[in-house]
């Protein structure tokens, strides 16, 4: 079993168009490192030097990882990680 990572449309160029990919690791940081090894360039779109990028939301089984431990959040086989770009703006 592995960890499913759901990829937003904007990042699918890094995954060959795949909507979801699988990875492994003990923490979210480990998982992103594993994804980077198979899908080069994806990690830098999700994290920067200070941690998770400000306008990227990451959920572990529908829970925002910012409230679970950020990049140190433990992940396990069978979990689902969803990456979503934040959406802002609109007209008044």
Task: Describe the overall structure.
With 92 residues, this protein is an alpha+beta fold. The chain has a single domain, classed as Ubiquitin-like (UB roll). The chain has two helices and seven strands. It has helices at 28-38, 43-46; strands spanning 3-6, 20-23, 47-48, 51-52, 56-60, 63-64, 80-85. A five-stranded mixed β-sheet has the order 2-1-7-5-6, with helices on one face. The longest helix is centred in the middle third of the chain and has 11 residues, at 28-38. The chain is globular, with a radius of gyration of 13 Å. InterPro entries: Beta-grasp_dom_sf (IPR012675), MoaD_arc-typ (IPR010038), Mopterin_synth/thiamin_S_b (IPR016155), Sulfur_Carrier/Prot_Modifier (IPR052045), ThiS/MoaD-like (IPR003749). Pfam families: ThiS. It comes from Sphaerisporangium krabiense. This is MoaD family protein.
Task: Throw out a few tags for this protein.
five-stranded mixed β-sheet; alpha+beta; 7 strands; two-stranded antiparallel ribbon; 92 residues; single chain; Ubiquitin-like (UB roll)
Helix/strand/pairing class, anyone?
A: alpha+beta
- Return Rg in Å: 13 Å
Q: Write down the overall mean pLDDT.
A: 92
The CATH architecture would be: Roll
As a percent range, the share of helical residues equals 10-25%
Give the helix tally.
Answer: 2
Strand residue content: 25-35%
Instruction: Measure the end-to-end span.
Output: 47 Å
General shape: globular
Largest sheet: 5 strands, mixed
Number of strands: 7
Give the count of structural domains: 1
Overall CATH class = Alpha Beta
CATH superfamily: Beta-grasp domain
Protein name: MoaD family protein
Organism: Sphaerisporangium krabiense
Pfam family, one: ThiS
InterPro entries: Beta-grasp_dom_sf, MoaD_arc-typ, Mopterin_synth/thiamin_S_b, Sulfur_Carrier/Prot_Modifier, ThiS/MoaD-like
